[in-house]
Amino acid sequence: MRENTISKLKHQLHQETKVCIIGHKNPDGDALGSTLGLCLFLKEIGITSQVIMPNTFPKFLSWLPGTETVLCYDEDKEICEDKLNHADIVFTLDFNHLGRTGDLGDFLANLNTTFVMIDHHQEPSDYATYRLVDTQKASTCELVHEYITSEYPDTALTADIATCLYTGIMTDTGSFRFPSTTSKTHRIIADLIDAGANNSQIHQNTFDNNAESRLHLLGKALQNLKVIKALNTAYIFLSQKDLNEHGFQKGDTEGFVNYALSLEGIKFAVIFIEHKAENIIKISFRSIGDFDVNTFARTHYQGGGHKNAAGGKSDLDLQPTLQEFERKLITYKQELS
Ligand code: 5GP
Ligand code: MN
Q1: Is the per-residue pLDDT at 3 higher than 90?
Q2: Is any ligand 1 atom within 6 A of the Cβ of residue 251?
Q3: Which residue's CA is minimally distant from atom 22 of ligand 1?
Q4: Ligand having the closest approach to the CA of 122
């Protein structure tokens, strides 16, 4: 891993600096929480910044403080490009290569600016001048907390900043249960609660606002569960037709893969979701223990992520994707059984 250089950024950050902050495509709680948390913090020290997402965020995160200020590249391309063309500093949060921002990545690759990367994904690429990268961390929000509290110890966190960072840590740790959760994670969480994050309310806002249609979609997903006992693997699939029939909204399938992972003895769980508009099958991989889904996703599905949680895609149709997956899986018999 290359040296972390973010402490050298301070002399370039002052009240006139124009800043943009970017998260990855299909932003999750950590991407949105970290970008908004940093944006709200910069405001506290007198620096105006603009959060730009490649595309919109799911409804279950729309209550987060500051979401009304977010620009989405797929909706407001010209305004986003104008902001970026004038930016002195562009923070990129919660992703490790520009390709993770979709079409926006092509624009960023040609942008003449200073990039700052704050991230926890494996094998980061090296487009950034300043970086704070720690692949051991459970979330980018923990790194943003580390950055602002170490560089600006005299600036108090507001309740809104704390709420954003708490949310990202909560979602990326599976509500503090994944092995990546450490005592340090809990110390940061304690600090955020002291700063005004309302833990119970945040959990409720994020997880207890289900539309009835989402629970029926979950029912369908569980009907489409296939268990391959010999390989300690379980997968779920949802076709575009399944999504359409259950009023699918962005974010509705978040967490579904964990039902497959919760089966007794299962080490490897996958969900395949058909996205007809993009002509791809989006795939989420999860594992328990040593099976490295980051490598699996990189090797076979143009993706990546972390050892126990990764994503990727297939360009085949749904059924051929599932058949191909089962064929590939057999070659991992030793690791999985
Ligand atoms: P999820 O399955 O929840 O979408 O993502 C799990 C993890 O894998 C997250 O850390 C996410 O950033 C990463 N990830 C998801 N999809 C992709 C992808 O297509 N490419 C890469 N490199 N990482 C991904
Ligand atoms: Mn993350």
Answers
A1: no
A2: no
A3: 304
A4: 1
